[in-house]
Amino acid sequence: MSPPAPLTVALVGAGRMAKIRAQALSYVDSITIATICDTEFASATRLASDFGTAATTDLGAILADPVVDAVILTTPTPTHARLICRTAEAGKHIFVEKPIAGDMEGARQAVDAVEDAGVQCQVGFQRRFDPAQLKAKHKIEAGELGRIEGFRAVSRDAYLPTVEFLRGSGGLMLDLGIHDLDCARFLVGEVYEVSCIGAVHALPELKEYGLFDSAVAILRFSNGALGTLEAGLCTGFGYEARTEVLGERGKLRFEVDSRTPLRHYTTEGVSFTPLMNFGERYHEAYTAEIRAFGEHLQDGKPVSPDARDSLESLCLALAAQRSLERGTPVTVSEIRDEVTT
Amino acid sequence: MSPPAPLTVALVGAGRMAKIRAQALSYVDSITIATICDTEFASATRLASDFGTAATTDLGAILADPVVDAVILTTPTPTHARLICRTAEAGKHIFVEKPIAGDMEGARQAVDAVEDAGVQCQVGFQRRFDPAQLKAKHKIEAGELGRIEGFRAVSRDAYLPTVEFLRGSGGLMLDLGIHDLDCARFLVGEVYEVSCIGAVHALPELKEYGLFDSAVAILRFSNGALGTLEAGLCTGFGYEARTEVLGERGKLRFEVDSRTPLRHYTTEGVSFTPLMNFGERYHEAYTAEIRAFGEHLQDGKPVSPDARDSLESLCLALAAQRSLERGTPVTVSEIRDEVTT
Amino acid sequence: MSPPAPLTVALVGAGRMAKIRAQALSYVDSITIATICDTEFASATRLASDFGTAATTDLGAILADPVVDAVILTTPTPTHARLICRTAEAGKHIFVEKPIAGDMEGARQAVDAVEDAGVQCQVGFQRRFDPAQLKAKHKIEAGELGRIEGFRAVSRDAYLPTVEFLRGSGGLMLDLGIHDLDCARFLVGEVYEVSCIGAVHALPELKEYGLFDSAVAILRFSNGALGTLEAGLCTGFGYEARTEVLGERGKLRFEVDSRTPLRHYTTEGVSFTPLMNFGERYHEAYTAEIRAFGEHLQDGKPVSPDARDSLESLCLALAAQRSLERGTPVTVSEIRDEVTT
Amino acid sequence: MSPPAPLTVALVGAGRMAKIRAQALSYVDSITIATICDTEFASATRLASDFGTAATTDLGAILADPVVDAVILTTPTPTHARLICRTAEAGKHIFVEKPIAGDMEGARQAVDAVEDAGVQCQVGFQRRFDPAQLKAKHKIEAGELGRIEGFRAVSRDAYLPTVEFLRGSGGLMLDLGIHDLDCARFLVGEVYEVSCIGAVHALPELKEYGLFDSAVAILRFSNGALGTLEAGLCTGFGYEARTEVLGERGKLRFEVDSRTPLRHYTTEGVSFTPLMNFGERYHEAYTAEIRAFGEHLQDGKPVSPDARDSLESLCLALAAQRSLERGTPVTVSEIRDEVTT
User: Chain-wide mean pLDDT for chain D?
Assistant: First the structure.
């Protein structure tokens, strides 16, 4: 049996996520990056030279190029919906960073465009490919925990993005919290209602934009489970990422490891080198995610999480974000019912 | 220097907590139990014979006995306020189980009675004497964490009390959650607002009484910190008690240990003997707490937490309980302002 | 059923171990210390006043006192054999610090004296009462590990005793190593041969006395298992005590815990308060050990480890000590066969 | 600056190690495998088809091929010396599995051949490239531990190789123990004397060949440090690999991690998925090792560990193996002085 033909992709965007995606693609022999496209030619060229690909600013040419099988969209959130629609209309498969769009209206248009064009669209929730989270999923589905009763998640980045980035990102719940909210849906099930409160600890000027660098939330799941969630930026004591699922008969926990198994003991305690950020923590997941995208396209199987699934995660994140801003509980259906497709 | 005269106490109540208190007192040479008093003579006698004391049903006689320096009240929550008032009026010092009362009105009367009589009254928040929590307090006060930004607490008992007990206890937040809420006040500071939601997982009949066996909450502290809290009864995977404090420069965590350092490794993982309940977890704290009560009385120094301090913890717990029942955020001042002393 | 009559003991010696024993006895209600006896009256008086007992220098009077049921010998190793003989001849039961004697000849005389007098004699291997080691023993006896194949032990004290003490102690293997060697016998079985090498790291003047502050050994057990052992004084990175037993189907490990479950996380790692010495590590064991001594005497059951059992541990320690000094493997039978009782 | 020309290698041997090497090479873009060569054509072809290379049985052709820059020797130990000599004489650089030879005579011939030919020869001690071990090395060299006083190593494989393999391997110390002995030299310094004893636990028929499946050893380092070492095959409780270095001021430990950070808690304890073998544990090290080989050749810098360095590790392993067979301490110089180059 001969291996499937390699997949040719174009990378759109040349920022931080593009670099992570290009790096992950370098470990996947069956996918080749043909071109890196960015509105700033210098950025595109810089990344392209690191990875030995062509560089361009002309997205139209990419979408018209019959060699390109799929497009990987790593551009800022506000551009997602429009670029998904355009790429789908060009008949190319799509991999897009989360969230699928910055609002429900864009998200619904994107889902419609993808489904109308009959292309595949995978959204970049890389944690779904994290070996620990995947194994947790298998244990839960195998009934090892019995009925699921609770969920706890903490995600705290160790650095502070620029105010400009934060403003464009849609807020803490839409940019960071959405990873844990998607994980909650993946491991426990749909969330019915969320209450979220926030604070500004690191950068006072965030307040004038109604932005938060820290937030905590409680979740009511449709199946009766309860959850807590915490998200933070600029955590002084370092990067945190912890997930716990509580069941009738057992509890699963996975959290940030140290970089190596080395431990240094003194009379003061024990020191080690902690992981510093999501790039390190989800190193394997990023590779597995893009490899799965390629394999599913080559095998003609549906990718996951797809556009419609990811729209639900967006919906939940928007509910959390609204609760954060408004200070009262918000049901997910309130968000879902505002726009009809 | 001769040691201070030993303290003579009477134990009122002969249930589960009375046993824990009598056990702890057996490690404290400077305090002697003279009598155990319970409305059921058989219960009083049984416990009295285990610990070599007299037994009675006559509280009046105890309160009139000049040999008795202090009374330890281990009776159900609804009796606390009344018994505190009566004991204070008899001029005896008081140690009472938490919460100081089942409602704000009783609590204010108790505080007034104590202060009017000029006796001392310590409330049984034993975690304030837990070596780990105490050391955390010292680190926070020494500024090792910098500004405090967050708090996380989980307390899950492994068993289910009777419905009758649960009804009398005032609810999950008043009975169990109050320990973590008092800890939040002790380590981080006053809480301004709390949102709490609950579920019934283990015992469906709780629903008809408006009771919950599981709850999660988010907390807004007056100093800007944010918190999450989780409380549960009848946890199938075992007893949990975890506290975390997050600061600008560090994070403190203490949680349930195993019973011994023994670890058993197989190809399946590692097993050990976990602690099973608060009696085991806070073994040292119970002894240190009652020893401190005795020492402060003997030295003529104010006990802690005293009645007024504990009234604030009750106030916070009542806010959490009301939020749990009502489903919306509740400010602590809403509770505090309802009754005026 | 009435409780057994309390046991009255005399404590002989008023040094470091006497203090640990007196402290442990203070937690055991059924044993009372009548007198503390030391050749230096000031030492005896100081300790006696801390624990509210009489003080004396007159051992003869103690041995003649019909009130005294048993004598606890905490004097230096070279005095053990002689004092055991004298106490046994006086018809008193004996608790003596390890090792039972400083040489085989003394040990055999002590065993003979005890057995001739028909008194009981327990030797102070407190680790046999450590909850972790006991639980390990139960698991091994229950067959949970299958056939036992290996043993590993590390004991490193964090401080350096005086050269004078070290000279009197019989050497590193006789004083410190014997704890792990007794544990090896207790958990795995008899040792056939030992090879031991040593070094001087902390105190160069030890060399002129042929003493070592660090040693490692390998053990061949009669049942085919293999072992490693390490002993050290003056460990710069802190107190260590680790035991591992390897079986066909599993491995047991127990080692030094932290003092509390508190962990302090920063970007550098995690710090905690480690245990500092055997007094802290075996706190519970010391109490359980002396309580068991009392209970066995009161119940008329044989104590354990008794004199004959402890003579075997001494024999093994002397073999290790000889190997350490000579640099070649030494069989335990070589030691055992040199003196015949 | 253009990247250096890629390196073309031939892989000699098509067994278990060849597969691990080919896999590692697949992550290193700058090295290309041209051919896989094995005396059994079917084996060569099978592996070659997995990795898309040519296959051959003709080593001569490979050595004569000007396209081949270096040869990777993964054949059994007894063939190493002869193949190194032949490859060196053909002017090709060499990467060879440890040990460099099965005896000192072969090893000296190999070193001579390499040095005479002026080619480079790296020996496959992959642990020297393990991130944890490397970081330990840096800390030791930076003086973070102060004077080094001790070393502890445990390596236990979870499976049993064939008796045939074990006979050809030179024994437990030469095949498995040599990894920890090389690590001891790398982290602590040269070893002066070793005492080693062994046992047969899993496969009784090993005894008739004088082979062991378990061994423990003690080490005397030239700098005064002491060490313990344990090696085992067919460990029923799973794969173990632990290294500890003890210094005046601190202790380093690194051991086998779990496969993911997932932990499953029940009332029985906590389970996780342990790593199963050296292939999993040293996954990263194998890639880093072969990448370093390529980079050093391309940069014209000396590789490490080179033939002469690896001869010292062999020498130490042969001393350990002789002690294991003879039952008495063996000095490394005894081995070193038997053959003169």
Answer: 94
Range of weakest confidence among B233-237, B311-315, D178-182: B233-237
Residue given tokens 């005795």 in the structure block: B294
pLDDT average, residue stretch C108-135: 97
- Which segments of chain C does DSSP mark as H helices, in order? 16-25, 41-51, 59-64, 80-89, 104-117, 131-141, 163-169, 172, 178-187, 278-281, 283-299, 307-326, 332-336
- Return the partners of chain C (3 or more C-beta pairs < 8 Å): A, B, D
User: Environment class of residue D337 by beta-carbon count within 10 Å: exposed (0-12), middle (13-18) or buried (19+)?
Assistant: exposed
Q: How far is CA D140 from the centre of its chain?
A: 22
CA–CA gap between residue C235 and residue C242 (Å, rounded): 14
User: Among partner residues C197, C228, C237, which is closest to D251 by beta-carbon distance?
Assistant: C237
Whether A175 contacts A169, CB under 8 Å: yes
Rounded Cα gap, residues D289 and D125, in angstroms:
8
Beta bridge partners of residue C70, listed in sequence order: C9, C93
Tokens read off for B40: 């059921």
Count of C-beta atoms within a 10 Å radius of residue C144? 16
Phi-psi region of C13 (alpha: psi -120 to 50; beta: other; left: phi over 0): left
CA-based max dimension of chain A:
65
Q: DSSP per residue over B256-269, as a string?
A: --BSSS-EEEETTE
Instruction: State how beta strands A269-271 and C269-271 pair.
Output: antiparallel
Q: Which helix (H) or strand (E) holds C240?
A: strand C240-247
pLDDT score recorded for residue D3: 53
In whole angstroms, what is the distance from residue D311 CA to residue D121 CA?
Answer: 12
Structure tokens at C17: 């171990």
**C17-30 CB burial, b ≥16 within 10 A, e <16:** bbbbbbbbbbbbee
With H, G, I as helix, E, B as strand and everything else as coil, classify residue B212: coil
Chosen from A197, A203, A223, A324 to mutate, greatest number of chain B CBs within 10 A: A197
CA–CA dist C316, C193 (Å, integer): 9
Which residues, including other chains, have CB under 8 Å from residue A263's CB and lie 6 or more apart? Answer: A270, A271, A272, D252, D253, D254
| Chains contacting chain B through 3 or more C-beta pairs under 8 A | A, C, D
Rounded alpha-carbon distances, angstroms, from residue D15 to B211, D46, D161, D165? 66, 10, 13, 12
The secondary element (H helix, E strand) that includes residue A323 is helix A307-326
Closest by Cβ to B271, choosing from D158, D236, D268: D268
Looking up tokens 């006053």, which residue turns up? B190
- Quick check: helix, strand or coil at residue C142? coil
CB within 8 Å: B261 and C252? no
Global confidence as pTM: 0.93
Which one is predicted more confidently, A261 or B233? Answer: B233
**What order do you get walking across the sheet with C121-124 strand by strand?**
C54-56, C31-37, C7-12, C70-73, C93-97, C121-124
Q: Of the candidates B27, B254, B264, which has its C-beta nearest C139's C-beta?
A: B264
| Among D109, D115, D74, residue whose Cα is nearest residue D95 | D74
Task: Of B174, B177, B209, B159, give the one whose Cα is nearest residue B77.
Answer: B174
Write down the pLDDT at residue C257: 79
For the record, the structure tokens of D139 come out as 């800390």
B130–chain A nearest CA distance, Å:
20
| 3 state SS of D55 | strand
Distance from the A310 Cα atom to the nearest Cα atom in chain B, whole angstroms? 26
* pLDDT tens for each residue of C27-63: 898 899 999 999 999 999 999 999 999 999 999 999 9
Chain B contact probe: residue of A206, A228, A248 with most B CBs at under 10 A: A228
Residues of chain A in contact with residue D135, where contact means CB-CB under 8 angstroms, are: 260, 262, 273
